[in-house]
Design goal:
The complex is a heterotrimer. In chain A, helix 2 links the parallel strand 2 and strand 3. In chain A, 53% of the residues are buried. The longest helix of chain A has 30 residues. Chain A is an alpha/beta fold. Chain B is an alpha/beta fold. Chain B has a single domain, classed as Rossmann fold (3-Layer(aba) Sandwich). Chain B has an eight-stranded mixed sheet, sandwiched between helices. In chain B, strand 5, helix 7 and strand 6 form a beta-alpha-beta unit. The longest helix of chain B is centred in the last third of the chain and has 18 residues. Chain C has a single domain, classed as Pyruvate-ferredoxin oxidoreductase, PFOR, domain III (Pyruvate-ferredoxin Oxidoreductase, domain 3, 3-Layer(aba) Sandwich), CATH 3.40.920. Chain C is 39% helix and 19% strand. In chain C, helix 5 runs antiparallel to helix 6. The N and C termini of chain C lie far apart (32 Å). Classes of the chains: A alpha/beta, B alpha/beta, C alpha/beta. Chains in contact: A-B, A-C. At the A-B interface, strand 3, helix 3, helix 5 and strand 9 of A face strand 1, strand 2, helix 3 and helix 5 of B.
């Protein structure tokens, strides 16, 4: 049914439709509306049977989910940024144990400096932990990915992180088609665990594994993600048949067929890129967008196939690896090894800085003319950066960086955007 | 030969005493006991924690009709009970992380409730490190929500598995790898201490108790009592560690008894935040009797030793005795 | 595509206004996207919210820098924040105020735009009368419906009832309707003049 509602509420309703049995909640912007929505559904009795637990930290949230999942319950939680980092030990534990927990990450920057707005640094910091990691382009896709997450996660016995841009998606009101309970039930069967704590058949979960077998256990996690590379498109296809729309999958090319330049991106910025690309196409530029939906497992073959016909690839990302450059870029380059094309990394939108069509058009124009440096920080205010570097060169006691920069930037409240 | 044979009247305190009525025998005395922590584990000779865990889990299994799930923190118990590729656990058991046993227990309990299987009970267990330090937040959260979990802390007063480092449960003056017996204030400092049983009581959870491995029946009875109740319950068990305490492996139970008899470790029960029962000291002893057999306190003795630290420890024991009323009037 | 930008202060329901507008547009069978620019909750601080309306799926996600419509919920912002930044020459402006543009010191500014597309409406006063509290957002949407005809009053009413319930909903509906009538009346007077 078509509804106009806030992204986080849409996700809450989607998760509720998946019949979760244990939900653990710890508040952090910008995911709070999701767990609040679910809390209300449970308390009112609309979502039952379900235990909604207000835990005392994100570390507790993931730990409670681990216990619940190990005891055979479908478990869910949501977090962002600092919260994700606080639970990292448990995040690795969940994937190491092979527990199919589903978690929404409302992508938000990681401090210091503290920042509540969107970028991908939080989920990117966990790209190696063994969780499947998917990125939603819109609130519709966020809804749909949660359904597919429970389905694929439980099938493979691996946890899944569904990433959606904090504020940009979570707090945006837009049209979403929410499926019926019957349709979801037909798509998502009850959870049948591979391992479960049950007195009638006792097992020990979480034993130590020494050098004799650790590599093999870890390889199996990789093997499962390799299997996921096959299952993700299959399940996405089944989803399309049942629900009548394309969501999820590995990658989604837009106007790439004859593109000389292809921009690669994840998440909500894909929408803005598509509008930008349409305008550039009208001006005669052969340019396209490749959205990556499944970041883990990383679809090397699919990315290569989509990009190999182009002359240049621009990876636009909301994350970066300090001291190196792009994060997504590195993975994309791996997919393109051996191919001769121009590669550009554009880092944009960190800490919620708006990515505008105008800036994209300008930057992509430079790329198309091969005038772009290999690594660009889009819309960076170099004056402020240089002022700070001068300050630090001039005096040892140069003070907190953030304070200095904010003073240079001026009062934020008076700005329109 | 003509060697004298000594007979001892041990009465009801013997573990395996089958001269008692069936209902008075200990769980351990029964051949039917679940033996949840089976033999073959790799604990040190004389390990108090292995003993305590076996007592506790077997008692819990009997009390719940073998409908029990255990959630274990990282630590000695977890390590020696599941040496790759074996496990000694005879019940469903999960080890997640160091600091989250209580939270995992909460999750298991929630799952069982959702599935309508509340007849299956949950035990969360860990050492002092995983309980009083790194697991403290999760423990308090579990208490505050009154989650249906019995949490048992096996307190050997230091991070033993990693090489005897100090925890917030380490008693003052004790030598550990991070509170060495050197300098003007050797051993662990005289800090504020962290009395987790009292903190548990401050949460007003249904049941809090302390126990030691010297009193098998008392420990079993407390586990049993705990399992008749629902909600958050906490059991703090003193488990001497021969290696970490520098004591003879045959002295584990003796040391636990001495800890009780000197007033250093008060043994009591509490419900809804109020003390309901206390185990009286039968024959009061000076703290020195407890401290001497442990090399972790060796620096207190000898010449010149640290008589002032000894006095402070004694004063603390005196305070416990007063506070909990551990002596009958006649003994006081 | 219609791009609407709302300005106000935290606690005045600016974000809710944008959301209700999007619901009203949805009710009229259109696509709409509403989102705030600041997510942190802080009463009294300047807040900007956006709403895009179109007949096809809206893929663009960036702050609205060239709005077609400007709705200002708090006149004290007028000389503090450049609320008019980027406003299209044929844009609509709705300001919550008892006073006129001249009296607000905006005489010069508004001469650059189309006069029949600009109006001030005493939304806080109307709200106070009908709701009992000076929460102007519903009233401003009613006023916008009258000013532009780009959204129907009944769709606004539907959106209000979607967001609120019971007496709160009905009093807001009354405020929106009163504001609609007020603006419609003023426009008739201006046309006759």
């Amino acid at each position: 049914m078509l509804r106009q509602l806030e992204g986080s509420h849409a996700v809450a309703e989607a998760v509720a439709l998946c019949r979760p049995e244990v939900i653990c909640a710890y508040p952090i912007s910008p995911q709070t509306h999701i767990v609040e929505g679910l809390g209300e559904l449970v308390k009112s009795g609309a979502l039952a049977p379900c235990e909604f637990i207000n835990v005392e930290s994100e570390f507790a949230a993931m730990s409670v989910a681990i216990g619940a999942s190990a005891a055979g319950a479908r478990a869910y939680t949501a977090t962002a940024s600092q919260g994700l980092l606080f639970m990292v030990e448990a995040v690795y534990n969940a994937s190491g144990l092979g527990l199919p927990i589903v978690m929404t990450v409302a992508n938000r920057a990681i401090g210091a400096p503290i920042n509540i707005w969107n970028d991908h640094s939080d989920s990117m910091s966990q790209r190696d932990c063994g969780w499947l990691q998917w990125f939603a382009e819109s609130n519709q896709e966020a809804v749909d990915l949660h359904l597919q997450a429970f389905r694929i996660g439980e099938e493979l016995s691996m946890p899944v992180m569904v990433c959606m841009d904090g504020f940009i998606l979570t707090h945006a009101y837009e049209q979403v088609d929410l499926p019926s309970q019957a349709d979801v039930d037909a798509f998502l069967p009850p959870y049948e665990p591979r391992q479960v704590l049950d007195p009638s058949d006792p097992v020990s979960i979480g034993a130590m594994v020494g050098p004799e077998a650790f590599m093999e256990v870890r390889y199996l996690a990789h093997a499962k993600q390799t299997m996921a590379l096959e299952r993700i498109p299959q399940v996405a296809e089944e989803f399309a048949q049942r629900f009548g729309r394309r969501s999820g999958g590995l990658v989604r090319p837009y106007r790439c067929e004859d593109a000389e330049t292809i921009v690669v991106a994840l998440g909500s910025v894909i929408g803005t890129l598509e509008d930008t690309i349409d305008e550039m196409r009208e001006a005669g530029v052969r340019i396209g967008v490749l959205g990556i939906q499944s970041f883990r497992p990383f679809p090397l073959a699919a990315v290569r196939a989509a990009l190999q016909g182009a002359r240049r690839v621009v990876v636009l990302e909301k994350s970066f690896s300090v001291g190196l450059g792009g994060v997504v870029s590195t993975d994309v380059r791996l997919a393109l090894s051996g191919l001769l094309l121009h590669g550009y990394t554009v880092i944009a939108g960190l800490g919620g800085r708006a990515i505008t069509k105008a800036s994209l058009a300008r930057t992509l124009g430079e790329a198309v003319a091969d005038r772009l440096p290999p690594l660009t920080f889009m819309d960076l205010d170099w004056r402020i950066v240089e002022r700070q570097l001068e300050r630090e060169a001039a005096t040892r006691r140069s003070g907190p960086i953030a304070e200095n920069l904010l003073r240079d930037v001026g009062a934020v409240a008076s700005k329109v955007r | 030969m003509n060697a004298p044979v000594k007979f001892y009247q041990t009465g009801t305190f013997t573990v395996g005493n089958r001269l008692l009525r069936a209902d008075q025998r200990s769980v351990q005395a029964s051949t039917e006991r679940s033996n949840s922590l089976n033999s073959g584990h790799r604990a040190c000779q004389g390990c108090g924690e292995a003993l305590g865990a076996r007592y506790v889990v077997d008692a819990a299994m009997r009390a719940t009709g073998n409908q029990l799930v255990a959630c274990n923190a990282t630590g000695c118990l977890e390590v020696f009970s599941t040496p790759y590729p074996e496990t000694s656990w005879q019940l469903p058991w999960i080890h997640s992380l160091f600091g989250n046993a209580a939270a995992v227990g909460t999750g298991v309990a929630a799952a069982l409730k959702v599935k309508g299987r509340q007849g299956v009970r949950v035990l969360a267990q860990g050492g002092d490190g995983g309980t009083t330090d790194i697991g403290f937040g999760c423990l308090s959260g579990m208490f505050e929500r009154n989650d249906d979990v019995l949490y048992v802390c096996y307190d050997n007063e230091a991070y033993m598995n990693t090489g005897v480092q100090r925890s917030s449960a380490t008693p003052p003056a004790a030598r550990t790898a991070t509170t060495m017996a050197v300098g003007p204030q050797p051993g662990a400092s005289f800090g504020q201490g962290k009395n987790v049983p009292l903190i548990a009581m401050a949460h007003r959870i249904p049941y809090v108790a302390t126990a030691t491995v010297a009193d098998l029946r008392d420990l079993e009875a407390k586990v049993e009592r705990a399992m008749t109740l629902r909600g958050a319950r906490y059991l703090h068990v003193l488990v001497p560690c021969p290696l970490g305490w520098g004591a003879a492996s045959r002295d584990t139970i003796l040391l636990a008894r001495l800890a009780r008899e000197t007033g250093i470790f008060p043994v009591f029960e509490a419900e809804d935040g109020e003390v309901t029962a206390v185990t009286k000291i039968r024959r009061r002893l000076p703290v020195e009797d407890y401290l001497r057999p442990q090399r972790r306190f060796a620096h207190l003795f000898g010449t010149p030793g640290h008589p002032e630290m000894l006095a402070r420890i004694q004063a603390e024991a005196d305070r416990n005795i007063r506070r909990f009323g551990l002596l009958d009037r006649a003994e006081a | 595509m219609l791009q609407v930008r709302f300005h106000g202060r935290g606690g005045q329901g600016v974000v809710t206004a944008a959301e209700m507008l999007s619901i009203a547009a949805f009710e009229q069978g259109r696509h709409a996207q509403a989102f705030p620019s600041f997510g942190s909750e802080r009463t009294g601080a300047p807040v900007v919210a956006f709403c895009r309306i179109d007949d096809r799926e809206i893929r663009l996600r960036e702050p609205i820098v060239a709005p077609d419509v400007l709705i200002v919920q708090d006149a004290t912002l007028l000389h503090q924040v450049d609320v008019f930044q980027g406003l299209r020459p044929d844009g609509y402006v709705l300001i919550n105020s008892r006073r006129s543009f001249e009296e607000l010191g905006l005489g010069d500014l508004v001469r650059r735009f189309r006069p029949e597309r600009l109006t001030c409406v005493p939304a806080s006063e109307i709200a106070k009368r009908h709701i009992g509290r000076p929460l102007p957002n519903a009233a401003l949407l009613g006023g916008f419906a009258a000013l532009s005809g780009l959204i129907r009053l009944d769709a606004v009413v539907h959106a209000i009832r979607d967001k609120f319930t019971g007496k709160v909903a009905e009093s807001n509906v009354a405020a929106a309707t009163a504001s609609f009538d007020h603006v419609a009346q003023r426009m008739r007077e201006a046309a006759d003049a």
